[in-house]
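The data layer described in this paper is built around a simple, fixed record for each protein. Such a record has a labelled line for the sequence and another for the backbone structure tokens. For reference, a complete record is included directly beneath this paragraph.
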Amino acid sequence: MINLTLKKMRFIPAALLAFSVLVGQSPGYGQPKASAAKSANALSAIKESDIKRDLFALAGDHFRGREGGSLDELKASVWIADQLRAMGLQPAGDDGTFFQFFHIQRTRITETSRLNIGSHQLVHGQDAFILAPAIASVDAPLVFIGKGTPDDLAKVDIKGKAVALEFSGTGPADISYRRYLFGTMSRRASELVKAGALAVVWVSDTPAQSYFERWTTSLERGRYDLPGGANTRIFSQAPTVWLPSSALEWVKQPGQQFTNVVNVESFNYPSVNIVAKVPGTDPKLKDEYVLFSTHQDHDGVRRAVAGDSIWNGADDNASGCVATMAIGRAFAQKPGKRSALIVFHGAEERGLLGSRYYVEHPTVPKGSIVAVLNAEMIGRNAPDSAAILGQQPPHRNSTDLVNAALAVNQTEAHFKLDTLWDKPEHPEGWYFRSDHLPYARANVPAIAFTTLLHPDYHTPKDEPDRINTAKVTRIAKWIYLTGWNVANRPDRVRVDPGFKLER
């Protein structure tokens, strides 16, 4: 294991900290703007024109896709903090700033690793992909077992050999096929290793090939986690290799040797949560917080698709960011009885790292967080479609909070709610893939608002001009009114007794 801490990047947290201190000391800073009209709330402050302007700024090419742990994520985070300051929100991060810095650890396959099949020398990240960065050293005969059916396996002894097979399986349609693909490869590879194989080589069939071209960029990066997390552990295991469909003919040739030497290395990078607040007006309730959650990072600059190498993440999750900014603007104009706490989580795409870190290191007492309303991908699909994650058991941890959101939808938002994606048997496991999850695990009432996946998800086509900003505005108002209700009711929303997730 090579532990390379990026010492040259240590100036970044200090520089941004100094910047935020200067911002926090601007004249007149921290004074919420008074609402022009004495209305019950500041819903009129949430405007599509603001949302569209902020969306094109944050999801434009200038921030280069805001990859977690990169300078681009940090630069976008400074921009967001500056917008929050200009709106009149107060800093609620560390040391009187808008920022809470943390480190993420990346573990990847080294450039010195080697992979040869017969006379073919393959480069990880170009010609082939190893599914998990783990130490391995294998030199064994390669046998091809067709599609790996029981009849195929009965014809050959795989013990002590590397096994190659063609991926086969229809699986669920559309986007869910991706999770079926990775899940099947991992499960079947484990079965073959238990039967004696020293390595497993998957060759894409026609459906799998499109995902090989589209999704393997994530495998180039390796694994990420908070330092000391499970994904930072270096271990040895039988390698699982994924090849394109063009390799099928030569992989079938008999008498080939599989040689694979894999080494891994580890790096630490800085990432950041952006934390702001609007103090409440009630002398007692202002010490409690309604937390509005989102994440600012995406995939950054990756392999070009149709000539575009910037994976902008306009829906994932600039849409959630600009909605949350609009909600902050509304609370700054008219605060609620409880305080509003706004958190933009860093490195969500790396495994919910920013929200996991914040739950373990909150900048307000954890028990003072009344509820979490998370915005995750809210700008695509049919204009009247949406979903609440955490609406139904076993994902529902607060009936009070869910009912508040449903009541606003019935009277104001009028979305047709999809309930399938919140079910535990849904193949995407969507509930477990956004920043409300660490809060729910900590028994904080938490839900997420989303308009679900679409074909441009995690591709360079997720551009700002494809976002329905009118829909984002409607959902921002829905989240705001739900949060306004929670902020002003006499009693806190409650956690359901016996709440327990299925995993």
About this structure: Residues 39-105+271-488 form a domain with the Aminopeptidase fold (CATH 3.40.630.10). The chain has a mean pLDDT of 90. The radius of gyration is 24 Å.
